[in-house]
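Re: flavin-adenine dinucleotide structure - here you go.
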Amino acid sequence: MTKRILIVGGVAGGASAAARLRRLDETAEIIVFDRGPYVSFANCGLPYYVGDIIRDESKLLVASAEMFRTRFNIDIRTEHEVLSIDRAQRTIQVRDLQRGTIAAESYDALILSPGASAIRPPLPGIDVDGIFSVGAVPDKKNVRQWIDDKHAQRALVIGGGFIGLEMAENLAHRGLTITILEKAGQLMPQLDPEMAEPVRRQLAQRGVTVRLSEGVTEFSRSPAGLLATTDRGTQLAADLIILAIGVRPEVGLARAAGLTIGATGGIAVDESMRTTDPAIYAVGDAVETVDVVTGMRQVVPLAGPANRQGRVAAEAICGRGSHFRGMQATAVCGAFGLTIASTGASETALKRAGISDFEKVYLHPGHHVGYYPGAKPIHLKVLFRRSDGRILGAQAVGEEGVEKRIDVIAMALQLGGTVHDLSEAELCYAPQFGAAKDPVNLAGFIAENVRSGDMPLARRDEGGFVLDVRDPNECKGGMIPGAVNIPLDQLRLRLAELPTDRPLNVVCAVGQRAYYAVRILRQRGFDARHFTGGMQTVTTLG
Ligand code: FAD
């Protein structure tokens, strides 16, 4: 018998599910409803459309309704809003937004992929013209139009997460001066605070004003333009305000239909993306899934997982028994010449989840060998389980080669890999691309040394004697207060100068010479420990 499958939302998750369904079941009747004017558009490309990097709006439409009809025989109904679900009757109520009519549609299986809505706090003045949320293509057209019509020169971006940074970068590309207001004490909340520090610094160097630990309380309009008042009493003037303070899962339909909503606010689903009603599936930004590292449920609005979940739901409906492996929140953002990427849990997330069995290493290798021109440092932090070396998360910031390293680690993490797998990883190498010991291998070597006890880590908060093994001229640029300088090459001759009653915390520029020193000292009976990432960690990450 022909199955009738209805899909609510025709973008990342919904469109993926529809296309996969057709490939698996040629006879099913598949109807996609979207209240917006388009399906399958590239949300992720929208900031670049504002920035004029993508000039032709049609390029953002990954697949047209027409293509879905002709190539996949899928019935696309844009400007159709799904109003409610009658689970007992297996029907949905749909309003045709053009005609204003309402009709009931029956289903054998229903997939919800309604996404998430941009948070718009009910602050005084929030509806003043010139304050834009980031969401769909029409929003972005409005932003472009506003910039052109008002000859906007000053943009205030509220929210310093990845969408805020992408919008800031693209508005700067259009020639606007940028202020970013962020309520938290750091940019990019998925990073640990010290890893977000180079981002803040880079933005400042590129002329972006970043105001951290400051939230907006009110908006108004004045002859000088738009005004945003902050909780510090400051008034910030702008010609355009972008709200990028996060999204909230669209769970209205699911909640009204009595489907279970999880504690984190997303629709509860099992590994097949099935909701608490076996005929209804849910995918994408609207659902909560299990974090593969912490085991906690979470809502993570990212396009890759939404697409994969759409595929899993389609396969489950067609009896293929596919499972979603869980979320690891692998993400990347490019802003003002930096690439910022992460996968798995941050140190903050591990602590929040009550996980204490972890260790962290920092390293700052070049993205390719130093002798080939143009090597750029990558600041990399890798978190792993102390007890068995399992990779828990990684974050990286740099100008080149950042996402490649995080992608490799992401794959290892998903497969349950350890830092020993990173040491063994056989990766591409030629001088212009990497190094025979790739940053990923180096991270593995360092973590292995920590786990084996060859190179215990210094704890900055535990005190001890700080031994700086750099050359004296390097120390002129600054040392850790109280540190004693003995260059590595003199160390064996000057051991008598070192105390034996305290740990020796050994530091160098990036960690390599300190590692050699730690090995010399430990084999001679000293309790030497390694300052991970060296002075570079102190100066770059704070
Ligand atoms: P969506 O793609 O949002 O689709 C939901 C659709 O459902 C919408 O079209 C909506 O109109 C429709 N809908 C909702 N309710 C109803 C209803 N009742 N009836 C009918 N239709 C309904 N992710 C990344 O991984 N990388 C990026 O670089 C990235 N950049 C982004 C940039 C921007 C500006 C934005 C806004 C998002 C970005 N994302 C990015 C996030 C990514 O776009 C989302 O995670 C992804 O689109 C979620 O897919 P989805 O199917 O759950 O929802």
